[in-house]
């Protein structure tokens, strides 16, 4: 029986900490599927801080692109798998195109639908951390607008399939469903 | 008896789909009052996608500026009228000034108050879709800041007069009132 | 017994008006601790509008930097003190560095922790207004990203210590805790 938990929220809203807490409710060992790519020092520092917070129950798997396949490969290996985070994965996929366009959005949405299919067949519970990125003014650059639309659509799709959905604000989770 | 439903949310949060669902609860025919102006291909594509999703119960009226007057003209012609969306209407009004300033904000707020008065006298229920645009960092440009302030004030005013208010996040509606 | 109320929300979401309403529930006189610095006309106009709305029960104290110390100095002088707002205070502290960096974030977080300690020892109830700034796309500039992270962390810390926490959207408060 598939079990998916979806957690969204703003930057530094405490969504990862809340997701880790939910994951720990499933026992140990736990899989931490990191979609981040260490491209610069800023990112490295952030990844380091997150790893520090998690304990020895966690095993980190780094996969910036093939999220669905990696989940299938790890199915059964952990009590739960935390994906952190959906929006970095979408960014990685989007940036495979030299110049992102409307086609890119549809191409990445095909990967999102694959992920949905995979989640429905997983035996291991999956906790997905995403970001709320659509509550500011319209982004100035086209890439920003495409990313924002893509993230919004992916969030809708995954929250719809999830058994639980939460919005975290100022560290406090609000149950969406 | 006036009946106003107010729906806000981020970009691609599923607020239009939720608003359409609420509207369909009133029966048919339904009015779709589009405030968008097709200025470019990006916008055309988005409008096309939205029209595709709506069925034959809907009649589209395009009005980028005279929202209150159009609502009064259409009062009684439909089981409900969906306004999609408030923030595009505000943008259209704001851009009537060559260089938007604090005066522009107050000028547009006068139109918002007219809209409020109209909503209070409508026999046909009106469902208003708006956008949450104030949860990012301070916009770099003055126009962005004016727009953000204006949208925030208009959202407050319309949510206050509405019988129901909803915030949609990741496709899931949260009841505000 | 310390009593802290934390209110967050987007720009022009009605959070200050709601905070003032909560404060007035404590009686009079009330302290209004303004962290804004009048650097330009835009800001002056906004401060003026806010002061107009508040009545004679309120006494304004302006303090852009030494928030914890000022709260301690004013403890017992009012029925409640409203701090408006946290994010302007964070901005003021951040901009003490000519070029903000990761160090700046940690330096300002030390001030946030001091504020937490102070709040725990206050006899006078304190109502803190903050801003939700993390629900847009990643800011283009490094300063924007540092500010966004800082505001997110400070919001988490203060919401965690608060007795009540609220998220205001379109003028309507949602209870977080």
UniProtKB/TrEMBL annotation, chains A, B, C:
Q: Which GO terms describe its molecular function?
A: adenosylcobinamide kinase activity; ATP binding; cobinamide phosphate guanylyltransferase activity; GTP binding
Active site: which residues? Answer: 50
Q: Which domain of life is it from?
A: Bacteria
Q: Which reaction does it catalyse?
A: adenosylcob(III)inamide phosphate + GTP + H(+) = adenosylcob(III)inamide-GDP + diphosphate; adenosylcob(III)inamide + GTP = adenosylcob(III)inamide phosphate + GDP + H(+); adenosylcob(III)inamide + ATP = adenosylcob(III)inamide phosphate + ADP + H(+)
Q: Which keywords annotate this record? A: ATP-binding, Cobalamin biosynthesis, GTP-binding, Kinase, Nucleotide-binding, Transferase
Q: Which residues bind GTP?
A: 9-16, 34-36, 62, 84
GO term, biological process aspect, one = cobalamin biosynthetic process
As recorded in UniProt, its EC number(s) are 2.7.1.156, 2.7.7.62
Q: In which pathway does it act?
A: Cofactor biosynthesis; adenosylcobalamin biosynthesis; adenosylcobalamin from cob(II)yrinate a,c-diamide: step 5/7; Cofactor biosynthesis; adenosylcobalamin biosynthesis; adenosylcobalamin from cob(II)yrinate a,c-diamide: step 6/7
User: Is Transferase given among the entry's keywords?
Assistant: yes
Q: Which Pfam families match?
A: CobU
The entry's function note states: Catalyzes ATP-dependent phosphorylation of adenosylcobinamide and addition of GMP to adenosylcobinamide phosphate.
| Recorded family membership | Belongs to the CobU/CobP family.
**Protein name per UniProt:** Adenosylcobinamide kinase
- Native source organism of the sequence: Pelobacter propionicus (strain DSM 2379 / NBRC 103807 / OttBd1)
Taxon lineage = Bacteria, Pseudomonadati, Thermodesulfobacteriota, Desulfuromonadia, Desulfuromonadales
């Amino acid at each position: 029986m598939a079990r998916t938990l979806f957690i969204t929220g703003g930057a530094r809203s405490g969504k990862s900490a809340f997701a880790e807490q939910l994951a720990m409710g499933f026992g140990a060992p736990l899989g931490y599927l990191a979609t981040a790519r260490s491209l610069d020092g800023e990112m490295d520092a952030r990844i380091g801080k997150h790893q520090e917070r998690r304990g020895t129950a966690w095993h980190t798997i780094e996969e910036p692109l093939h999220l669905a396949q990696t989940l299938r490969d790890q199915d059964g290996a952990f009590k739960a798998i935390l994906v952190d985070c959906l929006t970095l994965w979408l960014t990685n996929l989007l940036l495979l195109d030299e110049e992102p366009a409307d086609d890119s959005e549809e191409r990445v949405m095909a990967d999102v639908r694959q992920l949905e299919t995979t989640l429905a067949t997983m035996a291991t519970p999956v906790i997905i951390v995403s970001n709320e990125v659509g509550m500011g003014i319209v982004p100035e650059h086209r890439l920003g607008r495409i990313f924002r639309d893509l993230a919004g659509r992916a969030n809708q799709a995954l929250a719809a399939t999830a058994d639980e959905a939460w919005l975290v604000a100022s560290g406090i989770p609000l149950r969406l469903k």
